[in-house]
Request: fold
Amino acid sequence: MRYAEVGTDYLIELETVDGNDDITVKVELQKQWFTGNIEALEKLSRRIAHDLRDEILVSPNIRLVEPGSLPKTEGKAIRVIDSRIP
Amino acid sequence: MIAHQVSIFLENKPGRLEKVTAALKAADINIRAMTLSTSSAGWGILNLLVDQPDTACQRLSQAGHPAILREIVVVSMQDRSGALHDMLNLLSQAGLNLQNAYGTVLGDNKEAILVIDVENAEHVQKIFESAGVQTLPVEDVYRI
Reply:
């Protein structure tokens, strides 16, 4: 991730919603970038979603999470959880 | 001098709010007023008016929460119909927009307060003062 506001860890969750594939990207909001302003956080989410859509050609849901809350295995970040129904 | 509230980023998940209250309880911090705004994207912002905002913010940050002090103006008004409207009218005439606000009636049911989160709190405070609206001094805000 190239956004200072959300650090480098991320988690991609793939699910089936109403028969369609759905992609959610979770990113950790960095403490020092939090201003208490809802609008700023929504704008950040939109910016990340827009940039990712340009790269991967699908629109992801962006979910901001608390710092340090993304799962890790033996110190390494888990990057993808695929829960889609075949 | 400007008063502050503590704003905290929270995921909208069971137990998240409780983690905040646990950190505050451990530091013997008393919550005087609060508001919680949630987004549709699974997170929210908790705004707390507490008796020791600096300590609260520091303890919450140490506990891993994104937390920040935000300037507020606390307005005192009579507990009567129309009092809030009159006060908001001043703000709208001055072209000011509220980021967030929350209010309560105080114990004797004669006075009500409104906590206003605005950009440039000092400017807003001056607008109220010049219009004769009473704003609470910082030490009174933390004793509400």
The radius of gyration of chain A is 13 Å. Chain A is about 20% helix and 35% strand.
